[in-house]
Amino acid sequence: MISTSHLSRTFRAPGGEEVRAVRGIDLSVAREETVAVLGPNGAGKSTLMRMLSTLLPPTGGTARVAGFDVRTQAPQVRERIGYVGQGHGAGHAQRAVDEVVTQGRIHGLDRAAARARAAELLAALGLERLARRRTQAMSGGQRRRLDLAIGLVHLPELLFLDEPTTGLDPQNRDNLWEHIIGMRRRGGTTVVFSTHYLEEADRRADRIVVVDHGRVIADGTPAQLKQRHAGDRLTLETADPASAERLRGLVAAMDGVGTVTRRGAVVTGRAADGRAALPSAIVAARDQGITVVAADTRLPTLDDVFLELTGRSLRDVGEDPATGAEERGGPVTGVKDREGPTTCAEDREGPTTCAEDRGGPATGVEGGDRVPGQAA
Amino acid sequence: MSAVSPPRRRGLAGDVLIVTTRELRPVAADPFSLVVGLIQPLFFLLLFGPLVVSGTTPGTAHPWAWFVPGILVMISLFGTAGTGSNLQYDLQDGSHERLLVTPLARSSLFVGRALKEFVPLVVQAVVVVLVMVPFGFRPHAGGGVLGLLLLGVLGVGIGSLSYALAIAVREQDWMFWTVHQTVLFPLMILSGMLLPLDEGPAWMRVLARFNPLTHVVEAERDLFAGRITTPEVGYGFLAAGTTAVLGFLLGLRALRAATH
Fold first, then answer.
1. Which of A157, A190, A225 is the last residue of a domain?
2. In chain B, fewer beta carbons within 10 Å around the N or the C end?
3. What residue of A is the nearest CA neighbor of B23?
4. Compositionally biased, Basic and acidic residues: which spans (chain A) (predicted)?
């Protein structure tokens, strides 16, 4: 359904500086797949989506969508895709039903078919009572569902959703996704969505493409990415930093454990099998007379994957608005060139502190196995 | 229900019709907005009119025959010059972007919007003419129809220029209104639509000759008075047509630049 080769987009910033928002992306998406493009603000995911949906011409490489070249056969691509952008797709002075009908007419449905389809979609999305309301009088969640109806009215082969749930509360987010999944199942539509919500990508996508600084840095199913790039996370807390440093050495020497760091009295590490490694670490600590006051292991998250790949937490960088200039397709001003992944941020306090070590021991993390702390 | 991208084969005219219809829908749903647009010209008629009627009425049989056509051009000017702000809003909130991802011809997005200006403008003009008939304004039927057509062409031209400006300064809405205000009032005063320029200083009369609105105003006065074949009418249509063509060209160019 999608195939790109060395796809690139360069913007010229106001000062004349060239900014490479997307740098040679090779990507393929199969029919009926649901693919999440995950990355922080400014990573290049929206620029990628905008190129694939013909909004922005690439400055390098090629991309074929639904069998057509986005640069030379853009009209054919547009006939076959639906697009829900970051902004509101419906005109503010328009009535909800009119916008859906108009979209259907644009795509060649006759008036009766467009009206029938609009009524069906508005009912399915819980908007039938708001059909004649002006969109400017609708809430953010309602407008988002309307955008989805507009994107789906012509039964597209491929639906692009550019950060579809940004700004929505969790309930509205879930609600919107229920509709997307339901319609995807019924229509067999291929869905490509961008997001910086980790849970959203984890739960909703068949496959995740992690983008950072304009490049694909990982590609696979959520389970594959976690297995390949993260490993279980161990957290052990001691009574004092001195014993924690001794514990760090012990844990680092264990088989199957890597990337062991300490922050204050807390030691964290990654293990191929956290359930096996945690008791061993606790026993080793007890044998050395080290008191472990809390211990925890949990399954890796996509944030762990991102951290492993880039040395940064997606949760942190995702909130940084300063790097998001190209997300709307305009010139990018805040992206610096960066070669290869790093594992630890250098600008944190202390020489052994890594980016993930924020806020003490992990407790109650979803999907995790908690082991009670033991006293020596 | 399965994913089927429907066949879509429609010409440019069909696309323009869809866009124009979409743009007219909010106006039809809320005709009160047309009434609001008439408040200012009606105040001019109410407060300026008596001065003109009792004073200068250059070269016309009835003072309203001089004043009302000028007010109609004023409606065309003010009613359409600000319309670019709607497009600017759509550019900023994403609804224009959504249309760019549809199979609509890009040019239809612009032309359809510009043509939409024709309808509300003519409706407003008809209302003003009808309001003034009881006060003694007697428009020539054939000339009046041509006058409305001329107004529509001018409105499409000014609307196009307004859209072109909106696209060009889409990231700075303050710039749109700055240019709007800076350009509009000199154009209005130098067109002689409210006050005659015949007795004005020479430099004003020279500038007025280069103002396309001057020729449209003079053409409207001739048309509503039934003088359909005068050179002024020809110059008026030429000025309005040139404005429309220029507006289309600049607007399409701005749209093309904005999407690349």
1. A225
2. C
3. A94
4. 325-359
